[in-house]
Structure formats: structure tokens, C-alpha cells
């Protein structure tokens, strides 16, 4: 127990703590925990103002540990930072009626002028210039190892629990649940260490049922600009409609594409958070139900079964109940083989190879003394065990996988699931 609430009794009124999120400061070897401190009102009933003594105002707390979480400080209230605006009756633009730390995990920046910065995400109900309110996201950050904290600019509309990850070039990617429940995650990018963010867009490669997910670097200590620094892992309930099928996805290009997915738990599963563990595996803590089941899953990189190769998909509009062919182009990287067969010379159904400006060719493999022959090009090479298209590579070639039954009303790329085991 790191912070205990209180049930109202003769000794005092009620109060409680909720929505915890943690940041590990690797430079100071400290762990910070952020959470809501509520009295008589929660998120929905909180009023404007930031007086922590006001029992109708929701508050923000942070504690810290210098011994890996064995002992913790007493809660320190930072409501005046996270919840600007002192007036309860005459709020100004930018004043926050209610807010909460996004439960899960914050980050510490590794690169550039803001190296060492700690960033914790918040979501709040914010007064606008026209007198309306919007649910917006913001970063709360520290450049002095948690001595002082600062609130960044509000971003977006109909945001919710949101997370950040540092990209390979030092930019910060924000990834948010959609409070409007439109079926996908929302994203925005910061070029100033989380102080401000650019426009918010919908990432149609990340379906989401309005749920709290997580995003992290696969290789937290990778060198800036390296291939490993571009690799991200994302977990959430992999559905547009229901909290189910908590899954892991991998991106090899700073979150531009998410070509692979593995299911961690089929069926009901909800909030999740992911991190690289000390033993080299990944750990995912997630909700198995809403009362008494918080499973902890671990897996290694091999289990993710992902492939890093350039991916291109044209935008396609598909009418409800319609059938349409959608090409997905994957340009593999590596050896000189244009096409691979196994010992039985089996080929992947629906694969079409291109080479330079040549016309489309569909290889047909035959068994010939344990050598595979591409009948269209006359090439031969020793037969290789078939392990999918990410076995080996084909410089200059593009592989088109055709989906013949793409149904739905959404517009966007087809998720081909390269490297998918589910």
C-alpha cells in the first residue's frame, strides 16, 4: 500500500486516491507515483478552483520513492500546477474544472535539449474561450527530478487517458483514448519535449473501444536515430466496439505503421500497461475483470513475431457489405533472393512479385532436386525452410498481399497482420 484512503467515521471525513501512474527517473534513481486525491467529489462532480481544502475540488497528488518502491514519501499536492484557475464561479479560458493522471506509466526523455525530463500525462475538463468545456490532454513535466512540476498546453478535443513515448529523433508522440468513442486511437506529436503538441489526428491502424492503452519504446536505451530507437510497442483492447482481446502491436518506424499484432488475452480484457523488464522480456499488466483480476503477462521479442519492412497501403473507401481487393506492399530488406520456397516448394497464396519496372509476375514453385525454381524468371536457389515472408529478404522487390473480402464501412488501410500469431 503506497497511499491509503479513509472511510468517513468519527475520526474524520472520507477521502480516497485513484488512477495511479508511475515514472522511473533513471538519472536520480527515483520512482514517482501520481494519482487523484478526491474528497466529496470525483471527476464528474468536481468544481473549478484548485483549493485543496475545498472538498468539492478534485486534487492531484504525487509521492516518490528512493528505494525502488519499498518506502514512499507522504503525498505532495500539485493541484495548483495541474488544475489552473482559482475562481469557482468565474473560470477563465484554460481553467480546469476536473482532471486526473492517466493511469499507467509516464516517461523520461533520453535525447536532445530536454534529456532527463520527466513527463506525466493528464486529461482534464477545460474551459474554452467561448465558454464551453472540452476534454483535453496535457503533459505535466519536471526538469529538476521532481522538485518542481509544470503544466504544458492543452491539446485536442474529446481526449481521455493518454500516454506518451519518445521517438527516435527526440520528438514526443502522444497516444490517446478517444472520448468520443469513434473506434480508433488519437495521436499528436510534440517537438518541444511535451510542452506543446501539434494537430491531433486519428490513427486508423490502432482500433480501440474507448479504453486506456499503453505505448513504450521496445529498446529504452537505444541510441538516438538508430533502428532500435524507432521500434515501439503498443497494448490495448484490440477492438473497436468492446473491451476485449488485449493485444500487443509493434511499430518499426516511430509509430507511422503498426503491421503486426499478437493477442495476449482473448475475451474480456481492458486497461493495460507495458514495459521492458530487467530480464529483457516485456511485462503487461492488464484488467481481467473490473473487480479482482489483474493478470500480469510476460513474453520475449520472439513471441511478438514481428517484421520490420517498409509497408505501403493506398487509402481505400469500402462501402458496407461490399467486397474489394486491397493491395498491401511490403518491401523486404536483406538477402538477394527474390522469392523463397520450402523443401516442398510451397509458395504463399496470393503473392505477386515485382522487380523494378517489370510487369507483374506470379511465381510458381516446383520441386526439382531440392532446389526451388521461379518458373517466370528461371531463377534457382537451394530450397529454404518456409517461415513466412519475413524469412530472408528481397531488395528492390515488393510483395503484394491481396485481401479479397474487405468488408466494413471504415476508410483506411487493411491490417494484414504480418508476423501475427493470432
Write up this protein:
The chain is an all-beta fold. 2% of the residues lie in helices and 37% in strands. The strands form seven sheets. It has a five-stranded mixed sheet with strand order 4-3-2-1-6. Strands 5, 7, 8, 9 and 10 form a five-stranded antiparallel sheet that branches. Strand 12 and strand 13 form a beta hairpin. The longest helix is centred in the N-terminal third of the chain and has 4 residues, at 79-82. The two termini are 37 Å apart.
Secondary-structure blueprint:
Blueprint: E1 16-25, E2 30-38, E3 59-65, E4 76-77, H1 79-82, E5 96-101, E6 104-105, E7 107-108, E8 118-127, E9 133-142, E10 150-151, E11 162-166, E12 172-176, E13 184-190, E14 201-207, E15 214-217, E16 232-237, E17 244-251, E18 260-268, E19 272-276, E20 282-286, E21 296-299, H2 301-304, E22 311-312, E23 326-330, E24 351-355, E25 365-368, E26 371-374, E27 379-382, E28 397-403
Parallel strand pairs: 1-6
Antiparallel strand pairs: 1-2, 2-3, 3-4, 5-8, 7-8, 8-9, 9-10, 11-12, 12-13, 13-14, 15-16, 16-17, 17-18, 19-20, 20-21, 22-23, 23-28, 24-28, 25-26, 26-27
Through-space gap between termini: 37 Å
Give me the secondary-structure category: mainly beta
Please give the largest β-sheet: 5 strands, mixed
Cα gyration radius (Å): 25 Å
Q: Give the low-pLDDT segments.
A: 335-422
Strand percentage lies at 35-45%
* Overall geometry: globular
Strand arrangement within the widest β-sheet reads 4-3-2-1-6
Give the ordered list of helices and strands: EEEEHEEEEEEEEEEEEEEEEEHEEEEEEE
**Average residue pLDDT:** 83
Binned, the helix content reads: under 10%
- Our count of helices gives 2
Count of β-strands: 28
